[in-house]
Amino acid sequence: MVFTIAIVTTLASLVLLLLCGLVQIRKRRQMLRVAEIHAQWRPIFLHAIEGERSELPRGKAQRSVVVVQLWLQLAELIRGTAQARLAAFAHDLGFEHAALRWLSSRALRRRMLGVAVLGLMRSHAGIAPLARMVRDPDPVLSVLAMRSLLLIDAAAHLRHCLPDIAMREDWPLIRVAAVLAELPSEVVHPLFRKALQDHRSKGSVRLLQLLQTARIEGDKPTLERFLLLIQPAEVLVAALKATRSPQLVRAVRGLIGHPNAEVRTHVAIALARIGTRDDALRLALMLSDESWAVRYQAAVALTRLPNLARSHLRLLLSALVNTQATAIINQALAERDALRRFRTT
Fold it and tell me: Is residue 214 part of a domain?
């Protein structure tokens, strides 16, 4: 009995070993085939980028997944007329038809490939299915569909994507910001400002965060309504992070006494960017705040105010009977001086 079990175990092990070997051989052959296809098609695509056409390999490989993936890799690396030439070449090869067919595939990777290809080809035939896929519950696929749709025609479709951008918390802000950075600023900035002026829901926080993350310019009329004491703390923090215009300094000053420590911290940070010499006393008083973060950011802001001499700052601090204030401003001054030395070396 024991001998029989040993024989069966040995045979099973040999079978498993054989299967593993066959899998490795098949994988190796696939890798070699992919490398062969890349060697054939990479020069062809590079010539197409330069505006030249090469003789195409014979067979049915022109619209294979491997060839399209290689095209996509190259298309993501280039911009402008070079990308337009490569897209025109893809049209001639029939990539658009293949990508549209892949949108209905059961395989997520195949659908994602089709979505990405249609966007980089600027395929107007893909607008309708891509618009539907923006509503897909899968965050990766829907963000990719949104990107492709906006690459095709940002002016026509960004206004329709903004509600999803504002409300879909499963869309990472950094990914959305990367998509917006690819679009013309003359399209993105006005539409974003208008959306913020019209927006009254909790989605305004995400839109405000995107002003900072995507470096979208927010003007005074856009941000001023969000820098009011009646706004929730999370809205105020997002608006303060996006504040860059000196025209908003009065609105920022009005939040110095806000009961939320995080808001007061970002008030100090904002004054470091847009404050004037007139804010020195306000910031000096913030050095006595109960929150360490507020005290530290107020000290940093004091060292960054324009036209505020070190002697004037020392005189201002001498009027404050607070050893903590003196210590933290000395720390901020030491950090500023060290940074200046580092930049000059």
Answer: no
39-53 residues labelled b (16+ CB within 10 A) or e (exposed): eebeebbeebbeeee
Residues in the chain: 345
d(CA 289, CA 294) in angstroms, rounded, equals 6
Q: What is the DSSP string of 191-229?
A: HHHHHHHH--STHHHHHHHHHHHTTPPP-HHHHHTTSST
Question: What does each C-alpha distance from 344 to 305, 306, 339 come to in angstroms?
Answer: 21, 20, 9
CA distance 328 to 343: 23
Does residue 173 fall inside a structural domain?
no
Asked whether residue 105 is assigned to any structural domain, the reply reads no
Closest CA to 41 of 86, 102, 99: 86
Between residues 197 and 136, which one has the greater pLDDT? Answer: 136
- Look-up of token digits 């950075």: 181
For 291, the domain range is 231-345
Q: What is the pLDDT of residues 135-192, one digit of tens each?
A: 999 999 999 999 999 999 999 999 999 989 988 999 999 999 999 999 998 999 888 8
Distance CA 4, CA 279 (A): 90
Q: Total domain count for the chain?
A: 1
Residue 186 domain flag: no
